[in-house]
Amino acid sequence: MRHRSLKLRDSIRLMKPLHNIFLIGPMGVGKTTIGKVLSEELGMDFFDSDREIEASTGADIPWIFDVEGEVGFRIRESKMIEILTQRKKIVLATGGGAILAPENRRWLSSRGTVVYLRASIKQQFERTSRDKNRPLLQTPDPEKRIKELMQVRDPLYREAADLIVDTNRRNPKAVSNEILFQLNNPNSEREHD
To answer: Does the pTM exceed 0.85?
Structure first.
């Protein structure tokens, strides 16, 4: 059964427009860094939805969360994802919660190839533990919060993903190469999820 679902996913991937690559996944998996490497390899423009929100508002993400709350931020995020996914030949790194809104998942899935970058809870915690610009992790137990977020978000990441690539203990170039390999060899036996 698993083999058949991979074949179906591969055939769907072949039919999708490859003019855009959208990176989804939790905080700390390296979406921005990997996205920059991937965009250079492909000669495509790179965008980070969080940075674009900050540029358009003139405020950083923690400030937006403080003033507008998560709901206000998610509204801004959806508007930005709608705009960015309409571009052509881009690599887009999305925020960790971008997949929460059904319309975001629909835009991402219909306008490009979606790559779910994943890492273990431990790796996510290590990569985000000293970052004060992550409002959802400003709690007494950020590792527990990461686990809670993943319980809700992992099924949504999987639902939207055309490819799933593990970033644990891998450098951005190696992950970028894996993404390129899977895009160019859709029927390969390498791990898809």
So the answer is: no
